[in-house]
Structures are given as structure tokens and as C-alpha cells.
Write a structure and sequence with these properties.
33% of the residues lie in helices and 20% in strands. By secondary structure, it is an alpha+beta fold. It has two domains: 74 residues, RNA 2'-phosphotransferase, Tpt1/KptA family, N-terminal domain (Arc Repressor Mutant, subunit A, Orthogonal Bundle), CATH 1.10.10.970; 81 residues, ADP-ribosylation fold, CATH 3.20.170. The strands form four sheets. A three-stranded antiparallel β-sheet has the order 1-3-2. The chain has a three-stranded antiparallel β-sheet with strand order 4-7-11.
Length: 181
């Protein structure tokens, strides 16, 4: 399968497993899972046929491991705007986590912190390199440090998705290290 087809399938999966399952007539279970056969049938019925081999290749080859297949079911690992319980336990984070953004977003972040916006959680990266890649999707990246250890000690709950993305409901500004300037 060529790279362009892989990207199209991945974006299609994100749209329907994270944000708009009803658009193709599927229903996610409370934990975000849907039967693979149901997804493939719905995609075909809505003009975007995906073979099982293509689906498995996209899931296996995705560099960010955005999707998981288990027991004949598939789900997005995180990033949902629809209500799902990913059934991830609260865990102690490392002392520092990172968030990639762009300079235009710094003013509201300084005032309100990192908000989940339309997603269920704020996404944090375990290292600067990953956060840089995330921020670069929207322009020149700015990497913010998050004092996750102190947040955790102050009572904030963290979860970590299957693909290593750290999740938290909100990061107040007092826990964020901003670049000088």
C-alpha cells in the first residue's frame, strides 16, 4: 500500500473512531471499541472500502501507534472528542512531561493553562523530541515543560495511553515552564 493510501486510511480512522462514529453508523462501546468487521462494513457502505489487510497494516505501521486491535475489535488509543472511558488507571507521571504548541497559542496558555479543548484530555509527551514533532504539525514548534511530578503531588490525576501519550484533564499555568521571551 502506498503512503498516501495509508495516510487517508489513518485520517479516516481518526475521524470515525475518535470524533464522529455516528457519521458512518457505528457505535463505540463505553471503552471506545468497535468490532473490526462492523467498522469495515460501515466504511465500505459509506464509500470508503478498507481491506482487513490494509487496516492491519495501518495499525501496525503507524509511528504513533494511534490505534489498537484486540480480540477482533479496534479503537483509537486517545484523542477522543466523543465520551469514552479508555479504562486507563491513574498512575504517577515522570517529574517532567512536555507539550508541543506554536507561539500563537502561548498567550491563552499563559492565562488559562493547557485545556483539553474538544478532547477528553490534554495530551503530553514523555520527551522534548516528541513534543517538538507534535508542535511542528501547526507551524514552528514551541515546547513547554510541564511539572508533572508537582502536579501529581498536588492531586492531579495522570493516565498514560497504550502508545505512551500522557493524559490529564487540565494543566494550570503555574505548572508550565514557558520559554524566555
Amino acid at each position: 500500500m502506498d503512503e498516501r493510501r495509508m495516510v487517508r486510511i489513518s485520517k479516516y480512522l481518526a475521524k470515525h473512531l475518535r470524533h464522529q462514529p455516528e457519521r458512518i453508523g457505528i457505535a463505540l462501546d463505553p471503552h471506545g471499541w468497535v468490532e473490526v468487521d462492523v467498522l469495515l462494513g460501515a466504511a465500505a457502505a459509506h464509500g470508503f472500502p478498507i481491506s482487513r489487510a490494509e487496516l492491519e497494516q495501518v495499525v501496525a505501521a503507524n509511528d504513533k501507534q494511534r490505534y489498537a486491535i484486540q480480540d477482533g475489535r479496534i479503537r483509537a488509543s486517545q484523542g477522543h472528542s466523543v465520551a469514552v472511558d479508555l479504562d486507563l488507571p491513574a498512575v504517577a507521571p515522570p517529574e517532567w512531561l512536555y507539550h508541543g504548541t506554536v507561539a500563537a497559542a502561548l498567550r491563552p496558555i499563559r492565562a488559562e493553562g493547557l485545556r483539553r479543548m474538544r478532547r477528553q484530555y490534554v495530551h503530553l509527551s514523555p520527551d522534548r523530541e516528541t513534543a517538538t514533532r507534535v508542535g511542528a504539525r501547526r507551524g514552528r514548534p514551541v515546547v513547554l515543560g510541564v511539572d508533572a511530578g508537582r502536579m501529581h503531588r498536588d492531586g492531579h490525576e495522570f493516565r498514560v495511553s497504550a502508545n505512551g501519550v500522557w493524559l490529564v484533564e487540565h494543566v494550570p499555568p503555574e505548572y508550565i515552564g514557558f520559554p524566555a521571551g
